[in-house]
Specification:
Layout lengths: L1 E4 L2 E4 L8 H37 L8 H8 E9 L5 E9 L9 E6 L19 H6 L2 E6 L8
């Protein structure tokens, strides 16, 4: 190795080979470390592999949200006449236990379709959140004049 100092070149001697005792010690330590690493890896594999396999198994399928709406709500479709004779398509979702009392309702008039259309077709969810579905609100959806199923 060379180093510059005041226009002179200083040459440092290269380190000599390590003594045989150091090489023997390094080999012995590395062998033990390798065995320890292999043992640690085997223990880790024994405990994590079954957990990964159990997690990879599919869980019991949950009922889709569409089934919740279908199971708890009845869908009615109406064409509500306006003063000028045009009719607006309206879907009404009423809780099946309607006899339990008066329910509040939410109405949504939209230009973006209230589908799926047909009294046997149900959407995946109703209302702005799940809490409204579970609370038993009546949901009223209506297509605006001149769009989709409205005249």
């Amino acid at each position: 190795m060379r180093k510059w100092a005041d226009d002179r070149i200083i040459v440092y001697p290269l380190p000599s080979a390590p003594p045989a005792g150091v090489i023997w010690l390094l080999r012995r330590l590395l062998t033990k470390m390798l065995r320890l690493f292999r043992f640690s890896f085997a223990i880790l594999a024994v405990f994590t592999l079954p957990a990964a396999l159990l997690r990879a198994q599919p869980a019991a399928p949950e009922a889709p949200k569409e089934d919740y709406v279908r199971a708890h709500y009845t869908k009615y479709e109406f064409r509500i006449p306006m003063r000028d004779g045009k009719r607006l398509f309206t879907s009404v979702f009423v809780p099946k236990d309607a006899a339990a009392g008066p329910y509040p309702f939410l109405m949504d008039r939209t230009p973006y379709s209230v589908g799926p259309y047909g009294e046997d077709q149900y959407p995946r969810r109703l209302g702005p959140s799940e809490e409204f579905e579970k609370s038993g609100y009546i949901f009223v959806y209506q297509d605006v004049r001149g769009r989709w199923m409205s005249e």
